[in-house]
Amino acid sequence: MLKREANGLAISPQHFAALRAGVQGERHLVPAGPLHHPTEQEHNHPLRQRLRLRRGTATRTSSQLSNRDLSNSAVAHGVLSAFRSVCGEDGVSSGEAVREQHGRDESVHRCCPPDVVVFPRCVEEVSALAKICSRHSLPIIPFGTGTGLEGGVSAVKGGVCFSLRNMDQVLDLHQDDFDVTVEPGVTRKALNSYLRGTGLWFPVDPGADASLCGMAATSASGTNAVRYGTMRENVLNLEVVLADGRVLHTAGKGRRPRKTAAGYNLTNLLVGSEGTLGIITKTTLRLYGVPEATVAAVCSFPSVQAAVDSTVQVLQAGVPVARIEFLDDVMMDACNRFSSLSYAVSPSLFLEFHGAEGSLEEQVKAAEDITRYNGGSGFQWAKDAATRERLWKARHDAWYASLALRPGCKAYATDVCVPLSRLPQVLVETKEDLIESRLTGPIVGHVGDGNFHCLMVVDPDDPEELHRVHLFVERLARRALAMDGTCTGEHGVGLGKRALLREETGPVAVQVMQGVKDALDPRNLMNPGKILLPREL
């Protein structure tokens, strides 16, 4: 049955879907990274089958086919015209470079570009574009800054990428209430630059300069989580465009209470939804006072157990630690080589304390006493910014130091999290597994909350090594689950951890999640293929 667009052109969803299947040539619909293999349903998906039929005659690249057909087909032209009527001629692109830029993130998953990229400038345009996509059953993939680590922007079913970079305004700052509302194009660094001089800051720091709405979408956290919490604890309200174009305010339009007991917690439902339930177009965030003083420290230990014991005792003593990071001996050696440092090549803790000037020295002394009791040595601490930066250089350079171990390779970060008491065991077993598997994986962890990363350095052109990495990652995740932990502390599920999600939460929880998805997005248009495994069509 034909559906009629606003400009009067009749467009069949089946016609556009067939066109989309026919023009994409050699596209890999599903990334073939070490953490994701197509399921049987994905392999037999009608769209994939149509692609296989076309491949026998396709001789051009996917972008050449797409550009020609999208510009010449009357059907596709009508859809593109409808998009342009919303966000202007410059707000729509089907160019190869633009599509490929928006089909990948920082993960190891293969680039999977959308058919079209749109650049809305306001929530009204996002809503109007979503309604067009809904009318023609076109998948919608939100895109912030592309810093995700789980393939969340991969257009596994083609469709329309909503690039939100033009929505980059800080909308409402309430200094006396310690909150701010921002659009999805505002990054963490941009917000803190805007706040400079106000005495306020936003502390959640995932490392990359990610967009704040993207951080909400993945429930990101980072090095400061031990004191300030994750995004989940710091989001007060969200504005979300649903699959049918309706606009939802999860806590009520314009509301920003520090707490509420009113109904279901829709804000927490949307935080961590990875674009599968809607497009986040505004987020209202908690802010904090800039600490009066900051002190950094570093200390090395004879064993992983000693480092973790020190961490637990520091937290139990009520020391106001803001960051407490663990680097294993392999990582310390890599950082020494990369940054010309001279730290001990042994398990080490990097700490940072925030508080009042008069009390911090006493607190740092308490932390030093605890570390020495557990066999720690080489305790160094610094107050001024320049010295703190030098002290933390090893932690800041960890990613690049890992890559430097094997030039030309790529890195993938695992993301398990376990209860603190299980951390020594899981770390020791993981290091043994790395050695037995002949894999390079320096370890860095947010040890204050039991979250750690193996920075797997892998040759992307070596299938056998990729297979070993894949098996190692699955063993690590299941090891964490066996210790009452999670397969992902902060990166999200994305493409690669969907089966693990079922193992972690159980079938009933996944059924409830699927029910929520069906209620908000019954045709599976919002970022399809992420979080939940596909069902039989």
TrEMBL record:
Broad class of enzyme this protein falls into: oxidoreductase
Compartments in which it is found: Mitochondrion
Cited SUPFAM superfamilies: FAD-binding/transporter-associated domain-like, FAD-linked oxidases, C-terminal domain
Molecular function in Gene Ontology: D-lactate dehydrogenase (cytochrome) activity; D-lactate dehydrogenase (NAD+) activity; FAD binding
Single GO biological process annotation from the record: lactate catabolic process
Segments forming domain FAD-binding PCMH-type: 110-290
Protein EC: 1.1.2.4
Enzymatic reactions: (R)-lactate + 2 Fe(III)-[cytochrome c] = 2 Fe(II)-[cytochrome c] + pyruvate + 2 H(+)
InterPro entries xrefs: FAD-bd_oxidored_4_C, FAD-bd_PCMH, FAD-bd_PCMH-like_sf, FAD-bd_PCMH_sub2, FAD-linked_Oxase-like_C, Oxid_FAD_bind_N, Vanillyl_alc_oxidase_C-sub2
Family matches, as Pfam families: FAD-oxidase_C, FAD_binding_4
Region described as Disordered: spans on this chain: 29-48
Co-factor(s): FAD
Keyword Flavoprotein in annotation: yes
Keywords linked to the UniProt accession: Acetylation, FAD, Flavoprotein, Mitochondrion, Oxidoreductase, Transit peptide
GO cellular component: mitochondrion
Family the UniProt entry places it in: Belongs to the FAD-binding oxidoreductase/transferase type 4 family.
Function as written in the Swiss-Prot or TrEMBL entry: Involved in D-lactate, but not L-lactate catabolic process.
Subunit composition and interactions: Interacts with CSRP3.
Designated name of the protein: Probable D-lactate dehydrogenase, mitochondrial
Organism: Gasterosteus aculeatus aculeatus (three-spined stickleback)
